[in-house]
Amino acid sequence: MSALVGDLIGVLAQTISIYTLVLLVRVLLSWFPNLDWGNPVLSTVSAVTDPYLNAFRGLIPPLGGLDLSAILAFLALQLIQTLLEQSRGFFYPSFY
Q1: pLDDT higher than 90, residue 58
Q2: At a CB cut-off of 8 Å and minimum separation 6, what does 93 contact?
Q3: Under 8 Å CB-to-CB from 3, ≥6 apart: which residues?
């Protein structure tokens, strides 16, 4: 049973890693104002990442036109991923 929980935690940590990459793509694409966000790929990326970013936009207002909320969003994801990976060590102590 503990191996199953450890595997589940590993899948969650990997999912957060993939989401971090998608979020990075979203932030980099926001630097190009002429992009057509009606494109199905871009609208999907936006639909997946904007709810998460909006949670942090309420905490940190834009400063001088710069949206710094993405930095806090990345830090939160990194913290969660680190906590998951460390807790996985409890289920697989020989690997860590």
Answers
A1: no
A2: none
A3: 91, 92
